[in-house]
Amino acid sequence: MLRIFLVFTCLVFTAVTLSGCPSNSAVKVYVVPSNNGVQDGTSWATGYTSIQTAIDDAYAREIASGNTIQCEVWIKKGTYSERVILRPAISVFGNFVGNETLAESWVKPDPTTKIDPQTIIRWNGYETDYVVQTTTASILCGITVDGDYNSRCIYIQNAGAPGTILKDCAIKNGAPDYGEQGGGIYGINSQLQMQKCRIYNNTSTIQGGGIFLDVDDEELEIEYQIDQCLFDHNQATFGPTDGQGGAGVIFHFANLVINNTLFEYNSAKDMGALRIHGISQSTASITGCDFKVNTAVYLYGAIYSEFNNTTIENCKFLENTSRYGNGAVSFGQSAGLMLKRSFFYRNVADNGGALFPRKSAIIENCVFAQNQAYNSGGAILSSSLFGITINNCTFTKNKSNIDGINGGVGGAIATAGSLLNINNSIVYDNYITEIVKDQTATVNISYSNIKYGWTGIGNINLDPQFVDPPSTLLDLTFDLKLKTSPLSPSINSASASHAPSVDILNITRPLGVADDMGAYECM
Fold this sequence. Notes:
3% helix; 51 strands; ten-stranded parallel β-sheet; elongated; mainly beta; 523 residues; 1 helix
């Protein structure tokens, strides 16, 4: 039975309790950068100078005790140029000053602040496959793994439950051989838990500059858990076939949940940040994430999802670009979308500056502002035959045909051959034209404020009176910019039958005698 899960989760890990802290009760094996005296690992003064030697010693001690003791490897700050293989149930902690006797004295690093842990495992200068390898359950915490642009950082294969745990680690400068996937991390048929890690400056010439996670055995029970991480400046460059997924590629048989993670300045030929490739029964959930300034040379600036059903909630997509295809989010013909409480600002693409759904989609409580398309659909281009429903969204200052030579239309929305239902929304001051459909499309609009008007029950054509409309420059304190004033004609003018129970800021609807049009519920 197929039960394979990829989970980027927040708060609670299901496989094991992940404290990410050293333990006073564990037997310690110590490592220091240099030691010309006795090396037995029993103290800082007699610490090993090889991490691998310490790991092997710790593992041997556990085996000799009949697994009645728990061993940990404590590593002093410094640079260690060696290849490391993790062992079963051995926890490896870095970032120690070198005089700690109690676990409470350990200063926990946080690489997401862009300050790397000062214990560094670095490419050793001659073996190029990986810097750290594991095929078993193990913990790596407070470590910087540096591929030095010559090697993949971490290779994980067939690691069973509870899997490999990476916490408070920096994974950087990974570069596998030409035509290999996963510059920072490559995982095959393996469980992986990541929390508060930074993955940056990694490169692949084919797929997954930051990470590449795959499962080729559908009978396995696999979980990937990643939370509160930072993926930045990773790239998938032009390779022997393609360059896809600058930050990462999640491949095959996957249920995916991503929470509270930042993707910025990643780039690829296609799919600047993420490629998610599942199967028709799989799902993906992305919550509380930011996608900023990710770039695809050709297709899909931030996310491309295919062969699964995807939910995106409470996310921000800012200044993602692609020259051909969609600017921020695109979904293949076998992928459905639920998009809620999210912001799309200044994304740019050839068509569909912010969004390009090609299957069924429900979009509610979202703001689309200042997105641009060289051709059609400044904010959204829809070609879905399965129907797109938009409830309580706000579209303003989006623009199509930005270079003036392609004849593109639909400043806010362009739809071709699809069914589009718009309810309780504000579509105002977009260029060229607000909403455009071809002869094969059906567009139904109700209880919405559409500049220049649209035939339908409850529709109006009146200035929505935004409190503080966005300027031509991106203001990153934009969350409240497109609320309407207390005198707006859009207030108390929406239909309860289409309104979500909360607005974009998670405020309960309605606050007045009726629901408001647009993404915000106003006092």
